Each structure stands twice: as structure tokens, then as C-alpha cells.
What we know:
This protein is α/β, with parallel strands linked by helices. The protein has 6 helices and 8 strands; from the N terminus they run E-E-E-H-E-H-H-E-H-H-E-H-E-E. It has helices spanning 35-50, 60-69, 86-95, 106-113, 117-125, 156-168; strands spanning 5-11, 14-20, 26-32, 55-56, 104-105, 138-139, 173-174, 177-178. The strands form 3 sheets. The protein has a 4-stranded mixed beta sheet, sandwiched between helices. A hairpin with a 5-residue loop joins strand 2 and strand 3 (26-32). The model has no long low-confidence stretch (mean pLDDT 93). The chain binds a DNA duplex through helix 4, helix 5 and strand 6.
Amino acid sequence: MGSLKLSTVSGEKFWFGVLVDEKDRLLESAFNPSRKKVMDSLTRRARKVTGTRPALQPHPLAREMVNLYKGRRVRRVSLDAQYITPFQNRVYQYLRRIPKGRVTTYGMIAEAMKSGPRAVGNAVATNPWSLFVPCHRVVPSDLSVGNYSMNGRISHDSCATKAALLEKEGVPFQDGKVLGSSLWKPGQARP
DNA sequence: TAGCAGATACCTT
DNA sequence: AAGGTATCTGCTA
């Protein structure tokens, strides 16, 4: 593995950061009100992969991340799936198919995959590609907002961020729950 | 309708 | 083989 690049930008009320390889493949993305937390998460990953610190230099994908946060559509990004498990990979294929403005549930993904909802939650929680793989579009079966961690601890703030992201994408809410009309049912695994 | 376990759970290291 | 879990369902009151 060659050298990695780390780029951060601020936008809205967050810091956004990406870690990319020499071929512009995304290894990890993170966003948080604290720039230090973003940097820590990305440098930790880089160190694990290369044993060295990544080079700090601007990268367009960081800007793209802000666009995603604003609810805009961006070009397809190539992800480096070398450091995730096959199960995570399968789960993320489903996440990437959830249309903007829709949501699905942990249980529905589990059913489609013939796995269990808690296992799916486990994989979703460890998504290394915040925003690029839209894990915020997965909610509990009671259609409440559910949990979100933003590469940190689960908190009220991060869950509010999840709700805000969904609202930006046009998901209708009522009494703190998404409307059933926005549910998207995942199809069976594709070959 | 809110709270609480069980699921012979499911995946990861 | 143990440990973690961003869940779901049905049963209780």
C-alpha cells in the first residue's frame, strides 16, 4: 500500500474528513463537530493500514462529502473494501441501493440477506464510509429515528443529525417517526 | 402502550 | 469460544 492522503474541510457545523489512497479510492470518511475526532479516526485507520501517518493535503472528496451532507447528489466514488469483512460488504451493497428520500429497516435488510437484525445493526454501526454509504437511511422497525454514532459515541446530538440528514433528503416525519410511505423494501441479493 | 426478556440470534476476532 | 450488539417480536400489565 502506497501513501495515503487525509483531507478535512469545515462546512455547516461540522468538520468533514476523508482518507484516500494513491488511486483516489476512499478508505474512510468521517464527520464530527470536533476536527480532532475526525483526524483521530482517520489517522488511526491510516496507521493501521500503512503503519505511518497520512499526508495532509486537500482532496476533492472532502468537498463532495459536504455536498452529500447538504443532500446533493455526487458522482459515484470508488471505495476500498479491502479492510472490511465480507458480511459488512454485503450489508453495504444494500445500503447503497436505498434511494435518497427513502429509508429501510435493519430487520428488512436482515430478511433480504437471510441474516439477523442485530448482526445487520452491527455492520451498519461500523460503516467506515459515512455519508458515502448512507447508513443514516436505516431505522428501527418502529420507524423511530434510531441510533447514530458519527464515529463517536451514540448521543442525542448524533441522532438529531441523523434525523436532520433524512429531512434534508425529503423523508417526511410525524411525531418523531418517519412515515411508512417512505419505506423502501430491499430486494433479494443480486448475483 | 410502554417495558422487558428471549432469540437454541448472528457476526467478529 | 467468548463477547458485542445503531434489533425484533411477543408477552406482560
